[in-house]
Amino acid sequence: MSELNQEYIVISGARENNLKNVSLRIPKRKITIFTGVSGSGKSSIVFDTIAAESTRLLNENFSLFVRNFLPKYPQPDTDAIENLSMAVIVDQKRLGGGSHSTMGTITDISPIVRLLFSRVGQPYIGQASMFSFNDPQGMCPECNGIGRRLGVDMSKVLDKSRSLREGAVLLADYKVNSWDWSMIMESGFYDPDKKLSDYTEEELEQLLYAKARKVEMQFAGKSMNVTVEGIIEKFTNKYIKRDVKTMSERTQKAVAQYISEGPCSSCRGARLSQAALSCRINGLNIAEVSSMEVGQLIRVIREINDPVAAPVVKSLTERLQHLVDIGLDYLTLDRETDTLSGGESQRVKMVKHLSGSLVDVTYIFDEPSVGLHPRDVHRLNELLQKLRDKGNTVIVVEHDPDVIKMADHIVDVGPHAGSRGGTIMYEGSFQGLLASSTLTGSHMKRPLQLKQDCRQPSGKLSIKNAQLHNLQNVSVDIPTGILTVVTGVAGSGKSTLINDIFLSQHSDAIVIDQSAVGVSTRSNPATYTGIMDDVRKAFASANKVNQGLFSFNSKGACENCQGLGVVYTDLAFLESVKLPCEVCGGRRFKEEVLAYKLNGKSIAEVLEMTVERALEFFELKEVVRKLQAMSDVGLNYITLGQPLSTLSGGECQRIKLASELHKKGSIYVLDEPTTGLHMSDIGHLLAIMNRLVDAGNTVIVIEHNLDVISQADWIIDMGPDGGSKGGQVVFEGTPQEIIHAEQSITGKHLI
Ligand code: ADP
Ligand code: ADP
Ligand code: ZN
Ligand code: ZN
């Protein structure tokens, strides 16, 4: 290989999915951005070829002995890939992990905070593990470090307007004249005739929480030794601290009505032991530090000037600064990772890698600008550049012009989607792209148009005094019968306002977001949209056989893969691997089923058709209507049988949109529908949204994309900033008005 080629990852003859035998070179230690309409083949090059080959090579590093236990990773369909370094994929998959995984744990910042407390916290209490809620030494013993706990719901247990004699305790065990009731009445500890509302705090505390004591009591003239304890104390020991499975179903039900989940009463949600919580630095304990927004926390940490802590303070501020740099300054370290959005998750993962010390790695990003306001895109760019400058190769699939602009190298894939794509249209600098006549090049040159004739609303839906998360008592009207765009920087409160508050008041709204649509591994666009039912019927009547034969779940399905076409192998320490079924070769049905034809095609051949091809093939009115809807949302290139699990978030969202399009008189809520869409596809999306509005629907879109914002009938701009510095409506009005609104950051980007 020539000296020159060492500087490039060289791919020759790539043919995965729709790729037409493409060859290209990607400069090492540079930022290369892949552009092109969705379905053109960007992911087929970046993920299915480059990343797949890297995984396979990684596997070859294992000894032959270990490899015997691993699946044989198929080589990507390509002639050669040279000069590849280890690839790390930083995607938008949500960070799961349950309540024990937080922003602090996932970024490895929490261990440093604990170290800091163990070094300079007062009073000094021991090693760093004392401050970890994942460690038996540090966790709150009451809630095992979860911070939340099942507890007794007081409002259901006491009627304070009554005395004990009148039955103030509502628990079934304490019914008037019951044994437990008598114990309490006769114990002499409590005034049986005073209303509970007149009890002092101390008396109430005793009634509820007194520890068990032996008391001698007189019953029917006989002296007895009995145990008396506070009613909640007793209830907790008897029912809550016990394994529910040992209780009868009836008891479980009876107990459940008095119980609700709430913050742990011992640590008040802080998850840590009392010893850990009493240790402070500059007056703050570790729970207070962890619940502080990162932007404020970094200032607090900088104020620690104890020389013992200097190295720890330095590494901590460095990492916190990365979070600030990437625009996550509104998050807190104790934020549970499963509540982060896809875009936030990707940026958090990015920070983790920035702090690591890997070099000569190929980093692959999938639309990292998702969820970022135009104001913050430059921060993303700076982080990508930092990764590059550490000596890594950075490969990015992206649609945002502001990211594309800063690429060292651009690969434009096209010209269109599916079979009409799969070739390289342009390779080179950004300036060169602008000068080219590719779809991407020509769209980058178009100026923004602000909508002129905005529609008049037919009415309004009001939100009053919303206060969830960072919302600062927000009251706002959402106009009906028009297209409203809700915008604002990340963390300003858009999702909280629309997804949490608005949707909880209007449960009839149709929500179209990016969450996965696959109900089972057998789901595909044909089953999801209902086309499969019509197709099965057509095959059945054409061949005079039972339509059940043509279902993946039936006798007609391949027995080896149960109609999946692939076989999954689960591995303990790697992600599960999917290999084509050896029996049916991925066609999913038995030979005898494949012999039945509809206009010359077998069921497997129909499922391999793209939406575009199927539109030519089918004449059935219902099928054509559903196919047309998919075509309208830009999914022409998808095949009917492609498993939904292989679709991107943006594609899932458009499939949902397609199957909901025919409903009328409804409220639609779309959460960042431009995700995964090329600039040239956004026009189609806008056309669909406008069609929905013209048919009498209300459309509400959460979006950062300037093309969409500029075409709104009405804009609601949240801000001014993220987190505690946001949570207000800073502007309501039309695109023509927002550019004059002083306080709107969004407005400045539309000029
Ligand atoms: P992009 O990343 O540019 O949006 P993709 O590389 O994902 O495009 O898709 C290119 C083509 O390959 C499309 O026609 C798509 O439907 C098809 N394709 C992608 N993944 C698969 C798959 N797992 N199985 C079958 N077809 C696929
Ligand atoms: P946007 O949609 O504008 O990006 P969000 O509504 O997601 O903003 O977030 C607004 C604020 O509420 C942020 O400070 C965010 O960290 C916080 N927040 C959002 N969801 C949760 C949650 N599930 N738990 C705690 N805080 C949250
Ligand atoms: Zn606790
Ligand atoms: Zn099979």
TrEMBL record:
UniProt subcellular location: Cytoplasm
Gene Ontology process terms (BP): DNA repair
Any GO molecular function: DNA binding
Top-level division of the source organism's lineage: Bacteria
ABC transporter domain span: 4-440, 448-751
Pfam families found in the cross-reference section: ABC_tran, UvrA_DNA-bind
Entry-linked PROSITE patterns: ABC_TRANSPORTER_1 (PS00211), ABC_TRANSPORTER_2 (PS50893)
A GO cellular component entry from the record: cytoplasm
Entry-linked SUPFAM superfamilies: P-loop containing nucleoside triphosphate hydrolases
SMART domains: AAA (SM00382)
Keyword annotations from UniProtKB, A to Z: ATP-binding, Cytoplasm, DNA damage, DNA excision, DNA repair, DNA-binding, Excision nuclease, Metal-binding, Nucleotide-binding, Repeat, Zinc, Zinc-finger
Family indicated by similarity: Belongs to the ABC transporter superfamily. UvrA family.
Name the UniProt record assigns to this protein: UvrABC system protein A
